[in-house]
Each structure stands twice: as C-alpha cells, then as structure tokens.
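Dear support,

Our group has been running a series of protein-ligand predictions, and this particular one with S-adenosylmethionine is the one our PI (initials K.S.) wants archived with full inputs and outputs. We had some confusion internally about which version of the output was final, so please treat the block below as the authoritative record. The input we submitted was:
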Amino acid sequence: MVDAVDSKILKLLDALSLSGYEDGYARTEFSRGAAYHHRRIEMLGVSGARALDAGCGVGNWSLALSQFFDEVHALELSETRLSIVSEISKQIVPNIKPVVGNVEKLDFPDGHFDAVFCIGVIFLVNVEQALAEFRRVLKPNGKLYVTYNAAGWWRYLMEVRGKAEPNCVTFGGDAFIDRAYRLLQSADRDAILAAPNRKKSWRAMLEGLFASRPVDLDQARLWLRDDTALGKELIRSVDVVLAAGNVKQKQELAVVLRDFRDGKALQRPSGRARLIDPSDMQMLMEQAGFSDIRTDLEGTLGRGSQDPEPIYTAAQGVCETLARRI
Ligand SMILES: C[S@@+](CC[C@H](N)C(=O)[O-])C[C@H]1O[C@@H](n2cnc3c(N)ncnc32)[C@H](O)[C@@H]1O
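Confirmed final output from the archive:
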C-alpha cells in the first residue's frame, strides 16, 4: 500500500511540472518514502479526530498523519507547496484539508485540534507566538509535537549540506548569527574579549577606526579570546562565516561583535532562523502552558529496536519534543 502511495506521488509531481527548485525540494521531502513517515508518526503514539500539520511544506507528513486522524488540516505559507498538498488531497487521501496560513496567527477556533504537529518550522518563526497559538487551538490534553534545529545545525548547513545546496549556506549563516547574538547577550565580556579590547583607550581608538566604514569581520575575529569554550566556538564560527557567508552576514556578525566589545545593548540581526536548545524548548513550552514534555534527538521517541537510527547526529542536533496541553 505504501509503495503504491510513493509511485502515485511521483506521478503527481511529474504531472505538476513545478519550477526546478520547488520540484527538487518536493522530491527530496518525499524521498524517505511513505513507510518511513508512517512509522515515525506511529512511534509517537498520537491519534484522534483532528490534527493540524503546521507549516506542512509539500504534505509529506500530512500524508502520514491522514492515517492516524479522521481529518488533517495542512497549513502552509507557500501556495506553491500547498498546490501539491491539494493534489494529494484530490488524488490520494481526501481527509487532508489544505489551508494557506501563518503558524504565528492561526485562523482556527480555540480547542479545535486533538494534536498539532510542527515539523521543521518553529525555528523560522516567532517561537513564543507560535507556541501560544498551538496551545490556544489545542483541546485540553491535546498533544503538541515539534522538531527543531539545535546548536550544531548551522555548521552542518554551512559546511556539509551547503556544498551541494547553496541556500543552506545562507540559512546556516543566518542561524549562526542569531545564535552568536543570543550567546553574547549573556556572555561575560572579560572572558571573551582579547585584552586590548577590554581597555578604554583601545576602545576609543577602534571606535575611530570603525566610525566611517563597515566593520570588518576579519578584524572582529581578533577581538576574541580562544581560551574559553565560548570564545573557541565563536572563533571557529566566525571562520566559517568568513569562508562561506555572504556580505550581509559578515557585516551583521561584525556589528554584533562590535557592540559586544563596546558593551552596548545588542540588536538582534535580521536573520530569522533560530537554533533552539532542548532545554530552552522545555522552558518555552512550560511557559506556554504545556506539561509532560519529552525531548530527544529527532526520530528517537518511541523508537523500537527494528527502527532506523535517527537521521541527524547529536552534533547536528535536530531535536523533537512531544508535550501535552494543560
Ligand atoms: C523546512 S520546511 C518543513 C516542511 C514540512 N513540515 C516538512 O517537515 O517536510 C519549512 C516550511 O515552513 C513554511 N513556513 C515558514 N514560515 C511559516 C509560517 N509563518 N507559517 C506557515 N508556514 C511557514 C515554509 O514555507 C516551509 O514550507
């Protein structure tokens, strides 16, 4: 049955003739096959009447969810991606309802869903707002499942996947800049900054140097000390951005480092992708009104001995969290 679904999906994609990028994206997402997606949802042990697939992409998870719920609402910003979901709904599984929408502001009544799945999306949006919306649209005791990228993900995007997919370099760079901003917000200046940068006279001199031209990331790298774990991580990361990042990313990262050096309030750079450590997700979910929160590496919760290993390693750090709405 699942093999039949896979061949129907391929036929459907052939018939849609999407643009190169969107076609490639869709084929990649479906390439793990219906059986893989089905088992992953089965492992979570969640089923019921109505589910929301929040940020459903091309509907690969919606398709699996349709076997565990009477009705699956597949919500997505991109109309192009949703056009694939509409075809899946027409040709393969009628209990999927495609809907254009934004996970930060859901157009559903309170207490509407038995479960919300948000797979590979929450780090792209305002996390607090999305969690508040998921809680609102869930029934009491409803389940929330999210997957998200943690600390090592940006490096994996820039250094590994970026070799074949240039977009990944940009996403990885944005995610790192956001991470650098968050780490530096609470970091100890004296522990991170190289000695001359901690002295006022040097600061004044450098101030003059940078007043009339963009901050240079090559220079900013020299401000960092390499004898703490955070300093080492920052230097290694700056080197990756120097080697693979774009001009805007180099400038944004340099500005964050300059403001840190100068003891100024840091402005969050415009890159929106955010890396969320599992402990932060736990805290954000508790604050949003969830309990029974379980977190692991993506593809691990409920995994049996016959199931495949998680796709991403702990270093790459894609995590999953399953929780219950209070
Ligand atoms: C990495 S893809 C994941 C898609 C799918 N959930 C999966 O795992 O295959 C992220 C998707 O989230 C969508 N997205 C981004 N921001 C969104 C938002 N605010 N509301 C709804 N969808 C959003 C993007 O268009 C994209 O299709």
